[in-house]
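Instructor's aside before we start: the two examples that follow are unrelated to each other. I chose them only because their records fit on one page, so don't look for a connection. First example below.
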Amino acid sequence: MKRVFATDRGQVRHHNEDSVGIYRNLTGQPMAVVADGMGGHQAGDVASTLTTTMLQKAWAPTNEFTIPEETELWIDENIQHVNDAVYTKAASDPGYQGMGTTVVIAVCTNEFVTLGHIGDSRCYLLNSNGFVQMTEDHSLVNELMRSGEITKEEARTHPRKNVVLKALGTEAKIAADIKTISWEDGDKLLLCSDGLTDKVTEEELENWLSESNDIEQLAQEMISVANERGGEDNISLAIVTNDALKEEGEAS
């Protein structure tokens, strides 16, 4: 699988509270993670970095996952472990009080992807059927859209569009949204923080992913456009492509 991740402080923030990475286990299976931290005095940075660091350490010694139920259970258990750690750290230091982070995780095998997420960082899938957001934002504007109070267009400029209703580390117990999807050779996954999706449209994301196979250049182009349009927030993304047939051919 081809994979790339990138993060940028943006044009306004003094430091980057996002943390992103793509990590491999013992059998080479990748896990992509994007975490967008929140909290004063760089506490958001502490929460997001703790999240990716713990997930990386937990993922590295695992063996091959072949059954969706196994990956779903792994994500569920480890998200709770991370939540415990962030929540405990926030309670132990007044400077970290109230800190938390979004998180979106994609565990990728050749046949399926298992997703887990909390907050408004997103995962999109591009395949032969089109471009689809695979996660549901835990945000105020998404709830307003679901109830029919505002339209999707109004949500993009809503004054409280960045209000997150659920975040990792803000409660003693938390439930992530977890599901498994199938994907095929040539499909692409995009994980990203709202620093990207607040500045570019889904149509633009679809066009970029559809038209280019140079995902490293693509990642930098996405970040550059978000910065050109203001870059008020940190910008992070991870792209993973399914090259299962190519990999099988190379192995043989």
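Example two begins here.
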Amino acid sequence: MFKQWFQKKEQSNINPVSSIKILIIEDSQVDAQMIKKAVEVCGFNSLVAYDGRTGVAMAKEHKPDLIILDYHLPDINGTQVLKELRGCKETALETVMILTVINGPEAVIDTFIQGADQFFKKPISVPFLAKQIQVMLRHPHKDNDSF
């Protein structure tokens, strides 16, 4: 099913040249590559960080349009990444989507308190993820006149 969806998206070539950047902060290389492929098939540019500290540094440097953040990371968890992003002038208004296997209302509530814009549980279908990315980009959190 994924193969057919990717082929259809690649053939449609919806957005061949895009300036939209999406940062994926995901420690699982398999999950990161699947998300990266979905992002790129939609016509967007992607960057990948495999731990939280690298992700925060890349967010400051590249100022992505959307960050897809895993909750469980090897160095700091997603809540701490969110806290650092929201506490920094360069990244305070980045749009952040949590995508994780975590199961429990406390973690969901905590990520929203720390500033997550959306939360999805894995596994997630690639077509659904692509649609959610498009929705998140339609209503960005960023406001360049702030600060």
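The two ends are 45 Å apart (CA to CA).
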